Amino acid sequence: MNLPLLGADDIAALGPKAAADALESALRGGLDPETAPARHHVTVPGGELLIMPATTRRFTGVKIAGVATDNPARGLPRITGSYLLLDAPTLLPLALLDGAALTTLRTPAVSALAIRHLTGPVVRHLVLFGTGPQAYGHLAAVLAERHVERVTVIGRNPERAEALAAHARGLGPEAAAAREGGAEVATADLVLCCTTSGTPLFDGALVPDGATVVAVGSHTPDAREVDSTLVARSAVVVEARTAALAEAGDLLVPMAQGVFAAEDIAAGLAELVTGRGEIPGTGPGAGRGRGGEPAAFAGPRFFKSVGMGWEDLAVAAAVYGNSAA
């Protein structure tokens, strides 16, 4: 069997907007992230192996991704892996995709879909934490969804931060690099956290009411990019409650501290996209308090993503269809 190999160029050709559209189509078509198969974690000598299966009536697939924390020091990518796409009724393989490239497109597309429903059409100030592939991917995804006037890039390596800022300027917005510390979030209306940090990147009290914060960098219970202050202030949206309450340290740490509870999650991504849930701060009217009673809301909106297999499947299927067109 000659299995088509879809590499980074084939995956990038789909583009972030079409990838976000594929995710939205899956959710509007009835896919329920709450019942999607869980991710499996396996500790291996090189780091961590992630096994992420998913299925729909038309396609089945599995991503095997490696997280090799020492690879960047070797000049190698931190995320590795492959994605096997199969025909659902027969389970015959259809294509093999570059797993790292798929993740680089899929994760920003998930964030872009949330941003599509959480922000207005103009982003006056985007603060972007991170300088790796996810930071570049998220910048492209946001620019595909919104008009961005100004970008501030914050990273541990000043040269890499300036390189990303220069890249952003080449795409249209004003852009500059800044030192770590995160004071710039005080004037942001969109904050993107795309780092490998296990500790909060900025003071959550600084984020203005009405701003949106997206965090994608961590997927373990003890690691987080935002602090408990931000979570306690925010209307929180997650991909799925099941996944977030198992893996999202950004939420689990505040829960352990007693300043946040599972019932404080405002909505899952499917509810946000389909309009089935009332999301505080995303439109006129009040949100809902912990007991379900009407409650006025003033604060930021926080979207936490840990990455799920159904997202890889939706985007992989779209890449496969695009390559065959």
Description:
The protein has ten helices and 18 strands. It has helices at 8-12, 16-28, 99-118, 133-145, 158-170, 228-233, 241-247, 249-257, 269-274, 309-324; strands at residues 5-6, 40-44, 47-55, 59-67, 79-87, 93-98, 122-123, 126-129, 147-148, 150-154, 174-178, 190-193, 212-215, 235-238, 265-268, 287-288, 294-295, 301-304. The strands form four sheets. It has an eight-stranded parallel beta sheet with strand order 11-10-8-12-13-18-14-15. A hairpin with a 5-residue loop joins strand 16 and strand 17. Helix 2 crosses helix 3 (99-118). The protein is globular and about 55 Å long. The two termini are 21 Å apart.
Keyword list:
10 helices; 325 residues; 33% helix; single chain; 25% strand
- Helical content class: 25-40%
Give the overall pLDDT as a whole number.
92
Any idea what the radius of gyration is?
A: 19 Å
Q: How far apart, in Å, are the first and last alpha carbons?
A: 21 Å
Query: How many strand segments?
Result: 18
Number of helical segments with 4 or more residues: 10
Structural class: alpha/beta
| Beta-strand residue fraction | 25-35%
Biggest sheet details: 8 strands, parallel
Low-confidence stretches: 283-296
Strand order of the largest sheet: 11-10-8-12-13-18-14-15
Please write the string of helix (H) and strand (E) elements.
Answer: EHHEEEEEHEEHEEHEEEHEHHEHEEEH
Label the overall shape: globular
